[in-house]
Amino acid sequence: MRRFGAACWEVLLSFDRSAGTRQAAQLSFFVLLSFPALMLLAVWILSNVFDSPDVRHDLIQEIIDNLPIEQVQGRKELEDMLDQLTEGAGGLGLLSVGVLLYSVSSAIGGLRHAIETANEKGLHGPPFPENKAIDIGITLVTLPAALVFVSLVLSRDLAKVVDDSVFLSWTAAHLGGPAGIFAAGLVFYTWIFWVLNPGPTTWSSAAVGSVVTCLLIWLIYTALQVWFGITGGNSAVYGALAGFLGLLLFLNLASMAVVLGAHVAAVWRVHRGEAVAAGRLG
User: Fold this and answer.
1) How many CA atoms lie within 13 A of 31 on its CB side?
2) Residues 6+ apart with CB under 8 A from 117
3) Torsions phi, psi of 62, nearest 5?
4) CA separation (Å) from 159 to 46, 53, 200?
5) SS (H, E, C) 137-195
């Protein structure tokens, strides 16, 4: 227990020394800037794959339902704003899609910078052109995988096919629930902490950082649901602004969880390296 407490203290010190709160603010800012482009790109892909106008509304509804702002004033206004934002996204041209992809990759860039800053050896990644290519490549891999994940829940067209399979029906019924989202988060952050960290990285360190990140985000989500459930109806801020502020608060706190998870992964690598070295000497 003493070693565990010392490791936790080491993580907090590392987080503080690298200005973790600033890294989290930067990450949430990049995610927020990338969100409109991400929505347009997601709607473009889903609309062209399923050729259904209902996909856009289903996607917006699913996003809103999985944010801890159910009781916040302005939820409906936020839905309407996203609906207007993505209207006509299904008819985007390839050049526009390329620009959107570049914009969305900035969120991965924010993640990469936070993970590099947490690196225990102070290592940095390659220069900008290569870094940006990596960000875009990760986006190209992650976005389709994420859309496959949500498609089982969102698409009415796909639901007709899913109903014919017992396995797919069970998967679709549970995929959008807390367990499915938590599992998807574990896979995503494990991969992100592994692929974006400069220098040698073990899967175990990435997995430990991912578990901590997902647990913290779940706690933040639950706490905000309770808080907004108590205060949302009596807020002095109304309309879309209330929903937007609720979204900002969640993004910032969740970004802190991600940055902290990166530091956990770094501390884990240090201690595992020391244990391996001691074992060899012994």
Assistant:
1) 21
2) 18, 23, 262
3) -65, -40
4) 14, 15, 43
5) HHHHHHHHHHHHHHHHHHCHHHHHHHCCCHHHHHHHHHHCCHHHHHHHHHHHHHHHHHH
CB distance 259 to 114 below 8 Å: yes
Q: Is the dihedral of CA 128, 131, 133, 138 positive or negative?
A: negative
Contacts 24+ apart (CB under 8 A), 222-229: 222/68, 224/68, 224/69, 224/249, 224/250, 224/253, 225/68, 225/70, 225/71, 228/68, 228/69, 228/70, 228/71, 228/72, 229/70, 229/71
Tokens of 259: 């940055």
Total-model pTM: 0.83
pLDDT in tens, the chain (282 residues): 777 888 899 999 999 999 999 999 999 999 988 988 888 888 887 777 666 666 777 777 777 777 776 655 667 777 777 777 777 666 777 888 888 899 999 999 999 999 999 988 888 888 888 888 889 999 888 887 777 666 655 544 445 544 555 555 566 565 656 777 788 889 999 999 999 998 888 999 999 999 999 999 999 999 988 887 776 555 544 555 666 777 888 999 999 999 999 999 999 998 876 555 545 545
∠ CA 40-46-48, nearest 5°, is 100
Instruction: Give me 177's structure tokens.
Output: 């629930």
Supply angle C-alpha 142, 171, 208, rounded to 5.
Answer: 50
